[in-house]
Write a structure and sequence with these properties.
Elements lengths: L1 H8 L20 H5 L13 H6 L8 E6 L5 H11 L3 H17 L8 E4 L4 H7 L3 H12 L3 E2 L4 E3 L9 H8 L5 E3 L9 E9 L3 H10 L6 E9 L2
Parallel strand pairs: 1-7, 2-3, 2-6, 6-7
Antiparallel strand pairs: 4-5
Helix pairs in contact: 4-5, 5-7
This protein binds zinc ion (ZN).
Length: about 230
């Protein structure tokens, strides 16, 4: 009742098309959900992300939920998630992503999900790590468990808007460290980033995590630049 009253004055609208949401829709309306630009990379082994990573990092699978392009819905989702404090949309997207994977028979393919960490200063400023929100949603749908205590970020990178540039820069520096006391042997690890552009960030994380000798490492993102 109160919510209906509030929504008279502050109608909840779709972040993509501004249409008013009905009571069962959250953040994105049904027509926009049905029109999401899916990559289906989890069904295409030799996809652009896998190709980017194939030379340096030994990755079992690489995939992303959505295609990222300027002014597209994935960009709007990431803006909400990263700059508007809308952490809930990250969890929801992780759940939708997870449903896609479950539908493809991948419910039990991974044991551990590791979201790409933010530097602690940046996380304090934002209040949360956006990749952790997406990973939480995935954890809600898959048999895997999220771990945020294994990988940490040593290097503070300021630029998020110029991610392409900063990613290229970070590719030459070791930006992550691992907790050496953790064992990942016999674990199928899924590394998750919010968006993959050049692939350098996840590549650096994969190389660092290989120190813990997991059974396999796969990589995924909510959105992919290609
Ligand atoms: Zn919409």
């Amino acid at each position: 009742m109160w919510q209906e009253f509030v929504s008279l004055f502050f109608p909840r609208v779709c972040i993509s098309c501004d249409r008013a949401l009905n009571s069962v829709e959250e953040h994105i309306c049904l027509p926009c959900r049905l029109g999401l630009p899916l990559t289906n990379y989890h069904q295409i082994k030799d996809n652009p992300i896998a190709q980017k990573l194939s030379y340096t990092a030994n990755v079992k699978q690489a995939f992303a939920f959505l295609k990222y392009y300027r002014k597209g819905i994935a960009q709007k989702i990431l803006q909400e998630l990263k700059y508007q404090g809308n952490s809930d949309i990250g969890i929801l997207m992780g759940e939708w992503f997870g449903e896609e994977l479950v539908n493809s028979g991948m419910k039990s393919d991974f044991d551990v999900i590791i979201p790409i960490p933010l530097h602690s200063l940046k996380q304090r400023r934002r209040g949360y790590n956006q990749s952790e929100m997406i990973a939480q949603g995935l954890e809600n749908r898959l048999d895997a468990r999220m771990r945020v205590d294994i990988l940490s970020r040593k290097v503070y990178t300021e630029t998020q808007t110029k991610k392409g540039k900063s990613e290229r820069w970070t590719s030459t520096v070791e930006i992550f460290s691992v907790d050496q006391s953790v064992s990942l042997s016999e674990k199928n690890v899924l590394v998750l980033d919010d968006v993959i552009t050049t692939g350098a960030t996840v590549e650096s994380a994969v190389i660092t995590l290989q120190q813990l000798d997991p059974k396999s490492i796969s990589v995924c993102a909510l959105a992919s630049g290609q």
